[in-house]
Amino acid sequence: MTRVLVVDDDPAIVRALVINLKARSYEVDSAHDGAEALRTAAARHPDVVVLDLGLPDMDGVEVIRELRGWTRVPILVLSARHASDEKVLALDAGADDYVTKPFGMDELLARLRAAVRRAEPAGDGGDVVVETEGFTVDLAAKKVNRGGKDVRLTPTEWHLLEVLVRNGGRLVAQKQLLREVWGPSYGTETNYLRVYMAQLRRKLEADPSHPRHFITEPGMGYRFEK
């Protein structure tokens, strides 16, 4: 069973999510502030977190950063903040998706399923290992090693890397990347790609400002080169 942690200080939203998730056979825990969310996540080990940013004791972005210090659990932000810079801030902190309030329950559940799917190990991973001079990508184990140390990636960072590596040397269009990584309803949110490509470059490139492996084709898409 998939366990979901719902973090929101609005009792009506928590109640609606709990009812809908349980009706679809999810196990659900809830928290009403950031401190409770962090305690519950540590104790219950959810498979996905649905997180409001406007919490009474701390900003939700801080909760994301705290979680990312020790877990790669998918984080789906559910917030009334509509500004693009707010979304980028949450994604840059480590969130995997962002849904604005008011929201449609069907869309939210679809996004949640997609987030969980991205975090699951591939059933047909095989033994494909891709090596560059600076890092190694093990597609079967879903691991990246750089300088003898494992590199911690969020589920979304990993999925983006995986798509690019599996298409090594080939241009992957922006729209294709968005749909493969975030889902079929995406196609124009190119700011997501900029944020996550910057994160991958910071973690894996020797010189992130002059990338050798993660190449941007302006206005078209991205390409992975060994």
UniProtKB/TrEMBL annotation:
Cellular component GO terms held in the UniProt record: cytosol; protein-DNA complex
Single annotated GO MF: cis-regulatory region sequence-specific DNA binding
Residue list for modification 4-aspartylphosphate: D52
Keyword check for Cytoplasm: yes
Subcellular location: Cytoplasm
Example GO biological process: positive regulation of DNA-templated transcription
DNA-binding region: 127-226
Entry keyword tRNA processing: no
Residue span, OmpR/PhoB-type domain: 127-226
The Response regulatory domain, residue ranges: 3-116
Top-level taxon of origin: Bacteria
Role according to the record: Member of the two-component regulatory system KdpD/KdpE involved in the regulation of the kdp operon. Upon phosphorylation by KdpD, functions as a transcription regulator by direct binding to promoter regions of target genes to positively regulate their expression.
UniProt-recorded name of the protein: Transcriptional regulatory protein KdpE
Higher taxonomy: Bacteria, Bacillati, Actinomycetota, Actinomycetes, Kitasatosporales
